[in-house]
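#dry-run=false #mode=assembly
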Amino acid sequence: MDIRVQEAAFDFGSEANAFASRQAGMGAVVTFTGIVRDLGTASLSAMEIEHYPGMTEKALEKIAKDASSRWNLGDILIIHRYGRLHPQEMIMMVATASRHRADAFQAAEFLMDFLKSRAPFWKKELTRDGADWVEAKDEDEAALTRW
Amino acid sequence: MDIRVQEAAFDFGSEANAFASRQAGMGAVVTFTGIVRDLGTASLSAMEIEHYPGMTEKALEKIAKDASSRWNLGDILIIHRYGRLHPQEMIMMVATASRHRADAFQAAEFLMDFLKSRAPFWKKELTRDGADWVEAKDEDEAALTRW
Amino acid sequence: MDVLYFAWVRERVGRAKDRVDTNPATVMDLIEDLRAREPRYQAAFADLSALRVAVDQELADFNASLKTAREVAFFPPMTGG
Amino acid sequence: MDVLYFAWVRERVGRAKDRVDTNPATVMDLIEDLRAREPRYQAAFADLSALRVAVDQELADFNASLKTAREVAFFPPMTGG
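#status=ok
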């Protein structure tokens, strides 16, 4: 289990390769990457991500442990950035490995669902019109009920 | 849509990075990678993958088009190797991009389910005990019914 | 006891952290104490349905006991990922 | 019409490709023609439930028409991914 909360950028491809290459006996690797996307009409200049140092790491560890106990996994990687990010930058990634593909897929979706609404991160969008905190979506809360 | 059927190895990390970086406006990228895994008791020396040139490309394109019409996707990448592979080598990868994570996840699972049982690839495992064609699993056929 | 604020709760309160020397029994009691301080706390705690709370870095309810708590944090619903 | 074989079907038939000059009406008729050839075809086509067929590179049924077919392929269930 490798969990990192950091301000610095990370290299998605290198992390994905390193993760996949240390999975002896695992036949399936799934990754998810979240990217800062532009907003169309109100052009996004930056996204600021705030987090709760201390609780963030604990929350991510708990989510990863829950996933490990529910599915037959080789390993889990979570990297989540905070601070100021710009469009096209990668916010975070998760990677899961398993013998068969269903476990890796399910675990990655589970990690993302909980990371989205149960890990203490908050996003603020800075556009030319000002700054707005991103509001949590009902559908993200609803996504938790499927697990 | 980028679909490649090739004998040569590919670099998962570089492909994943290149795919992610050309997704303007997409907030989510999901990748799946299939890796040749060792078999435990009967040590696997190699895996041979046979395919049906011509039909393979058509089948993969159809599966990718079906995914594009069902989900709101930015792009799809499929790379699948054939020929002789060794344990730890990567057999194939898919990548999907979408604005929101649910589409990329669902599309990647759909691609894998159909690629598994509807694209003309056949795997043969070479162990110290001999060579065996991998048998299709009932659960892989059953997985198609969820779509 | 340390009381932390994040995101727009922090912005409305105007600071990231308070030190509270009273001994409120529950989160709700703590909120009442804070609301009694200044209008900006009233603004921050106006709509509790828009707030989440963590006690000693674990998500909790508003009626959670603060008996052994060393750190309470208030923030809006999380938006990670 | 070209008839292609893959995986263990190819191994049992002992070749990857046959050229068939008769005009079978359906896939099933073609299979009967092939079975009549040699025992190794009988072995390859012994259990049709273990076989899949593609007509002109599209998956098809055993009762599919071969009227306009240029290429038929037989193989076991696929195991990609």
